[in-house]
Amino acid sequence: MGYRSAKRFLFLLPPEDAHSISLLTLSTFPSLFAECCPPGYAGKMGMLSRSVFGIKFSNPVGMAAGFDKNADAIAAMCSMGFGFAEVGTVTPKPQRGNPKPRMFRYEQHGALQNSMGFNNKGLAHLIRRLKASYPARIPIGANVGKNKDTPQKNAMDDYLLMISEAKDLCDYLVINVSSPNTAGLRDLQNEEFISDLFSSARKQTGRPLLLKISPDLKASKAVYLCKAAMDNGASGIIATNTTVDYSIMGGSKGFGGISGLPLKEKSIAMLRELSSELYGRIPLISVGGIFSGDDAYERIACGASLVQLYTGFIFGGPGLPLRIKTRMIDLMEKNGFESIKDLEGSSLRR
Ligand SMILES: Cc1cc2nc3c(=O)[nH]c(=O)nc-3n(C[C@H](O)[C@H](O)[C@H](O)COP(=O)(O)O)c2cc1C
């Protein structure tokens, strides 16, 4: 069944049910949507490979956090042609998340809005799943957060516990302080907390440690925060999470975070700000509104080393990673770039 027919069915369902069915299908039949590379491109895929923070990526297109929160579908991410996948956000204890409905689909806008609130099966399940799947055929990131009922003053303990337990079962770790759906979480986007957390985490592991930031930070604050993370051992920055700027989409709800096409402009704006200050000093991963090879190409040209997507996958389906990759190769050939490394930051040099 092509994704077009599957999508017609899935989009009749409430978005969270559609998500559960999709994830169950992908975890049960990981090769169902195995990528089938057209002959003309098979020999060119090497153009997309590269190393970032000491890890080799066969291509720069990753699945963003939130889709496979509990690391149940890692094998499917590999077979669909993603270059890496980020699982989580996972918290130390399992938690149900916010009341339903908490995921909304805006087909006409190419957007989702969610207030999931870190629904996840917790650290013990994550460890079991990672032990079964790690190392995978592609790099795996573990995105970590704090439990809703952990007092703010103990937030650091949750992050450090997650890092110490997961560090040897993934390729990189992401500190998520930018989800809008856990009360007070974004308050942790302050220099003191980030500096302390990264310096403590760095003492626990040599694995790449990344910070994921919100698109709603003022640019100067975002740069400041990223520098604090960098000065204390961060290996990369992921920009961005979902936005609570409801003005970007007519008909949006007044809660949760918006993702997908309406987020694109904000996500690019943040990437440009970060690139202008930090390009060449720390790898940047761009996420937010990436739906096509043109989008991915533009982000890399603007200084991103890698890209991620979530909402684009919901709208574009399992064939999207391959479509993005082949289009990137076409664009790179047309514009004379032999490798992703060549393309990276090219629009900053103009
Ligand atoms: C339903 C949903 C759940 C998400 N859950 C998480 C999460 O648990 N942790 C996280 O860091 N980001 C989460 N995200 C944010 C995505 O990883 C991504 O940063 C954001 O959606 C922007 O990318 P996109 O426009 O490609 O979706 C979630 C997004 C959606 C739509």
Written account of the structure:
The chain has 350 residues and is α/β, with parallel strands linked by helices. It has one domain: Aldolase class I (TIM Barrel, Alpha-Beta Barrel), CATH 3.20.20.70. The chain has helices at residues 3-10, 15-28, 39-42, 74-79, 122-133, 155-166, 191-204, 219-231, 264-278, 293-301, 311-316, 320-335, 340-343, and strands at 50-52, 55-57, 61-63, 84-90, 103-106, 111-114, 140-144, 172-176, 209-213, 236-239, 257-260, 284-287, 306-309. The strands form three sheets. The chain has an eight-stranded parallel β-barrel, surrounded by seven helices. A three-stranded antiparallel beta sheet has the order 5-6-11, with no helix packed on it. The chain has a two-stranded antiparallel sheet with strand order 1-2. Helix 8 (219-231) packs across helix 9 and helix 10 (293-301) packs across helix 12 (320-335). The protein starts with a helix and ends in a 7-residue tail after the last helix. The chain binds flavin mononucleotide. Flavin mononucleotide is lined by residues 64-66, 69, 88-89, 103, 112, 114, 116, 143, 176, 179, 212, 241-242, 259-260, 263, 287-290, 309-312.
Comma- or semicolon-separated keywords:
three-stranded antiparallel beta sheet; binds flavin mononucleotide; 350 residues; TIM Barrel; 13 helices; alpha/beta; eight-stranded parallel beta barrel; 13 strands; single chain
Oligomer: single chain
Uncertain runs with pLDDT below 50, 5 residues or more? none
What CATH calls the topology is TIM Barrel
Q: For the largest beta sheet, what order do the strands appear in spatially? A: 3-4-7-8-9-10-12-13
Task: Assign an overall shape.
Answer: globular
Distance between the termini: 45 Å
Bound molecules: flavin mononucleotide
CATH class: Alpha Beta
Query: From the alpha-carbon coordinates, what is the Rg to the nearest angstrom?
Result: 19 Å
Annotated CATH architecture: Alpha-Beta Barrel
**Residue share in β-strands:** 15-25%
The CATH H-level superfamily is Aldolase class I
Q: Total number of β-strand segments? A: 13
Specify the helix fraction band: 25-40%
Q: What is the typical, i.e. mean, pLDDT?
A: 95
